[in-house]
Every structure is written in C-alpha cells, then in structure tokens.
C-alpha cells in the first residue's frame, strides 16, 4: 500500500503533483536543488504562478502532508519531474534526469516504484533502470524465483497539462503509463488511478516516451504551418488572420494561429529529441523546428526596419511569457526578440510583462525599462504585441493612434495601424 511519495523536482509539474498527492492524503517528501525554493515551500508559499496551486500547497504544508528538502528520503513511490533541456547542438541533455535517478538510489528498497514524468528521449526509462542496477546489485527488475523478493518497479508516465490549468488537468486528463515490464505498468496504473479521473492508458515505456514526443511534435508541425503562412502573407500583403478565419470555415480545415515563434519547455524542445534519434526519418519534424525557430528573427527584422525610419525610436514590447496569462518564460520567443532588439541598440525599449515582478536578468540593458503596459504604449513610437495576455485588452485604440503596431498574435483590431501582423 502506498503511503509516502518522494517527488524529485518541484517546478511547474513536480510541485502541483506533490500538492495533488498530499490533497489525496499521501505523505509527500518534495525534493529540489534550489534551497530558496525548498524554504519557500516549507513556509507554505509557491514560487510559480498557477491558479489554485497556492492554497493546495499551503494546506498540505500546514497539515503536515508535504515537506520539502534538498535531498530525497525513503518512500514507497519516487516520481522524477526534472527538466530535460537540449544542448547547443540540439541534442538531448539528460543530466538532470541522471542526477535525480542517482540521488534516489541510496533510498530505494524492494517493492518501490520509480516513475519518470519528465519528457524524455525514447529509451530514457530503460537507462534509469540500468543506472539503478549498476549501483544496487541487491535490487532487481526480474520476476524470477531468486529475485522476486528484491525487485523494484519502474515506469514512464508523461505529464500532459496546460499551464494555467494544471491543477484541473492533472486530475481530469487521460494519462499514458508505460512500464519496463507488464508488472511495472500495472502497478503504476493502479497508483495513478488513486487520484486521476481521466482514463489510464497502459502500454510499454518506449511507446509512452514516444507518445509524449509525438504529441508535442504534432503541435509544433501545425504551428509551423501557421507561421509559414504568416510569412507568405506578409510577403504578399495579405492579412493572415482573415485568411485563416476564412480557410477554417472549411469543415475539414483547422489551421492554428501564428505567433512570434514557439516557446515553453515542451513544444520548443521535444521535437529535437525525435530529430536526434532518427534524423533521416524526421525530415518534416526537423523542417517545422527550423520554421518556428526562425520566426522570432523575422519579427526582429520587421521591427528594426520600422525603427530605422524614426529618430530616437521607442518600442513598447508587450509580453515576455511563452504563452498568454502565465509567468513561464522558458524558451520564450518573446524573450529572444526583446533581447535581440536590445542588443541592436537602435531604440529604447519599454517592456511590459504583468505576470512577473521584475525584468529578467538577461534583459537588463541600459536601453531596456520594465514598465506598466499602458505607460509603455504611451511612451512608444512602435508597439510590439508579443503575448496575448488578457490584461492587455485594457489598452484602448486611442492609445494606439499614430503608432506603428506590429501584432504577432492578431490581438488588436486595428484597421488604422500602419503595420499589422507578422
């Protein structure tokens, strides 16, 4: 019977998962390498912005069901929810997964279940099994008569939640569970059924890993189509937003919306894992990555061209997050665009991001100022809409009169704007 869970990695997935488990009566030991994060959680505070998460963590900590530390502790189930970035050459970096796996090894005991939730290249779950067996010859994954009493179980179960709706989707969304063997799959499925209302879909570890990468690559390819359409329309002087609206009236067409690029820790990263694993076969996925990665530079060129027409130009940059209504800056194309415009040095930038408290370190240039949205627009010659945050709807059309507007999200209804779209 599962009584205690150790969650390694208390970020955008690990912390909500820890809170949900505690909400369901389990004793949770959370682990994070950041001592400040650990201290904040133990005070009942959260370090990320996510609706409904704060009260859950506060209640879990004050109720004695959640405790955070910088090192693991013995448990019945170990969940690894750490980042899986890529290196400069777009190759997967499993450093954090390996560190997390090796950190729990001294605490493992027969009967334990180890679950990897981090989005990972195919074969990573099996590598975790190898790391464990190399260090702990007293443990086994075998069902033989000689090892039945010292075996542990290991599986892969990817998260598939939307920032801003994580607490709901952790419960309601279907989950894919894939073990390194059938018994691991079954044990893991039984564990998730305790707190997930969605369907638990059982398979093997490699298929589960591939499924997560496939979901994100599918999104990336479809976004790339929309972004490429926006480039074509810009070249041909066509309103891409009207084009997509009309094309989507076809009963079997559903084109996504273009933007300044693709961000976040999943869609902007995971397709590279497939390209790295099968470069000759993943040609379409590779091309989509290139289209989406190059889109920010198209925006930079467009804005720089407008700035070159002005004397001492001022640019209002609205939004830094990778998507609307969140504070998540990971892999954000908006961050890259603002950073590049700042480095060009041809304009003063007023940056508005209402979901964070201060300008990120990488954007602290002399010509970059952190401002409220309306103030940024009022001071500017060029308005660059990068993120369609709901709060930006308070910017009335009167503030945008006589300004260049570059709207990368189709957010403003601006028939009077000098420049609209991307």
Describe this structure in words.
This protein is an alpha/beta fold. It folds into 2 domains: 4-205, Rossmann fold, CATH 3.40.50; 233-407, Rossmann fold (3-Layer(aba) Sandwich), CATH 3.40.50.720. The protein is 39% helix and 14% strand. It contains 14 helices and 13 strands. The chain has helices at 14-23, 35-42, 53-62, 95-104, 124-135, 166-172, 182-192, 205-236, 240-247, 270-277, 283-307, 333-344, 373-379, 397-400; strands spanning 4-8, 27-31, 66-69, 77-80, 113-116, 153-156, 175-179, 200-204, 314-318, 348-352, 368-370, 382-385, 404-407. The strands form 2 sheets. Strands 3-2-1-4-5-6-7-8 form an 8-stranded mixed sheet, sandwiched between helices. Helix 5 (124-135) links the parallel strand 5 (113-116) and strand 6. It is globular. Residues 416-420 have low confidence and may be disordered.
Task: Label this structure with key terms.
422 residues; alpha/beta; Rossmann fold; 2 domains; 8-stranded mixed β-sheet; 14 helices; 39% helix; globular; disordered C terminus
What is the number of beta strands? Answer: 13
Helix content class: 25-40%
Radius of gyration: 24 Å
In total, how many domains does the architecture comprise?
2
What value does the average pLDDT take?
93
Low-confidence stretches: 416-420
CATH class of the largest domain: Alpha Beta
The 3D shape can be described as globular
Named at the architecture level, the CATH assignment of the largest domain is 3-Layer(aba) Sandwich
DSSP helical segment count: 14
CATH topology heading of the largest domain: Rossmann fold
Based on helices, strands and strand pairing, what is the structural class? alpha/beta
Strand content: 5-15%
């Amino acid at each position: 019977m599962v009584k205690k869970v150790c969650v390694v990695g208390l970020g955008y997935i690990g912390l909500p998962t820890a809170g949900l488990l505690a909400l369901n009566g389990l004793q949770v030991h959370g682990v994070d390498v950041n001592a400040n994060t650990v201290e904040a959680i133990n005070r009942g505070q959260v370090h990320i912005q996510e609706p409904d998460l704060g009260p859950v963590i506060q209640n879990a900590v004050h109720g004695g069901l959640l405790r955070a530390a910088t090192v693991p502790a013995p448990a019945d189930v170990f969940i690894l929810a750490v980042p899986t970035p890529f290196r400069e050459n777009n190759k997967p970096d499993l450093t954090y997964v390996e560190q997390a796996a090796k950190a729990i090894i001294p605490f493992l005991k027969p009967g334990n279940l180890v679950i990897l939730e981090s989005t990972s290249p195919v074969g990573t779950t099996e590598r975790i099994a190898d790391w464990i067996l190399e260090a702990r010859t007293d443990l086994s994954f075998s069902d033989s008569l000689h090892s039945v009493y010292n075996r542990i179980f290991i599986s892969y179960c990817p998260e598939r939640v939307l920032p801003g709706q994580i607490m709901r989707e952790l419960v309601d969304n279907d989950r894919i569970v894939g073990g390194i063997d059938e018994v691991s799959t079954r044990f893991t499925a039984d564990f998730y059924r305790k707190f997930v209302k969605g369907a638990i879909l059982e398979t093997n570890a490699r298929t589960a890993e591939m499924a997560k990468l496939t979901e994100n690559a599918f999104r990336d390819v479809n976004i790339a189509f929309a972004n490429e359409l926006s480039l074509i329309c810009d070249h041909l002087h066509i309103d891409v937003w009207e084009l997509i609206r009309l094309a989507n009236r076809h009963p079997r067409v559903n084109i996504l919306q273009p933007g300044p690029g693709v961000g976040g820790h999943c869609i902007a990263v995971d397709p590279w894992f497939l390209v790295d694993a099968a470069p000759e076969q993943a040609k379409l996925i590779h091309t989509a990555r290139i289209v989406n990665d190059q889109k920010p530079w198209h925006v930079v060129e467009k804005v720089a061209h407008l700035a070159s027409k002005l004397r001492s130009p001022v640019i209002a940059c609205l939004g830094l997050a990778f998507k609307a209504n969140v504070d998540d800056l990971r892999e954000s194309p908006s961050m890259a665009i603002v950073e590049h415009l700042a480095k060009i040095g041809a304009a003063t930038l007023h940056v508005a991001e209402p979901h964070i408290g201060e300008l990120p370190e990488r954007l602290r240039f002399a010509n970059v100022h952190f401002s409220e949205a309306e103030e940024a627009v009022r001071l500017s010659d060029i308005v660059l809409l990068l993120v369609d945050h709901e709060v930006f709807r308070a910017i009335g059309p009167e503030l945008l009169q006589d300004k260049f507007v570059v709207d990368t999200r189709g957010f403003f209804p601006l028939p009077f704007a000098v420049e609209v779209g991307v």
